[in-house]
Amino acid sequence: MNSNTISTAQNPEAEEEKVTENGETELLHDIKDMSDEVEPKTGVSFPLLLGDGKELKALGVRKKNLLGLSIKVYSFGIYADNQKLTSVLKSKISKVEANATKEMCRIVIDNPVGITVKMVIVFSSLTMSMVRKNFEETVGAAIKKLGGEKTDLTKRIMGEAKDGTKVHGKVVNKFESEMLCRAFVYLYLGDDPLDKEAKEKFGMSLLSLF
């Protein structure tokens, strides 16, 4: 199963949560930021290396059109386990192209390569109800594109989330759904990614592994 997501507060110094590969939500107390990379459109810094060893592959911004305006909702960093990523890609690709292909990104989406997405909210007016609605719409659509049934998967993840919820090192939600994990990664690496430049940069990082 792919690991999926980290959700953070607006304060970059706030404690952060992630959904790990086994679906448990936990705090990231151990981010080892030997050095950072700054997402230029928002000014948010992302560590090049997470505490579990995953490396930063690409940065991007999630935008949303609101009343004719393009609003920056959150910036994100896509991390991956190099060892798993290299092993899976080399086992499935015999000939490397000059540019990253759709096939390469689909391999990442469909296989357990240890992907984590770190998100930092930059839109100050964002509420949990807005997050829940967007999550259900976007991930639900991705599930359908991947040939799955939306059912209640998205509601199971976001249903108990409330504004102002704080987590202190305890598991607040747990899920096991390969389809949900694939759908989330599809949002960033699929046919219509949230940030095309981020997908392109991630693709370049895949080529560097060969």
UniProtKB/TrEMBL annotation:
A single Gene Ontology CC term:
chloroplast stroma
The annotated regions of Polar residues compositional bias extend over: 1-11
Record region (Disordered): 1-23
What processes in GO biological process is this protein linked to?
fatty acid metabolic process
Record InterPro entries = Chalcone_isomerase_3-sand, Chalcone_isomerase_sf, FAP1
One molecular function GO term is: fatty acid binding
Q: Which Gene3D superfamilies match?
A: 3.50.70.10
User: By what name is this protein known?
Assistant: Chalcone isomerase
Q: Which organism is it from?
A: Deinandra increscens subsp. villosa
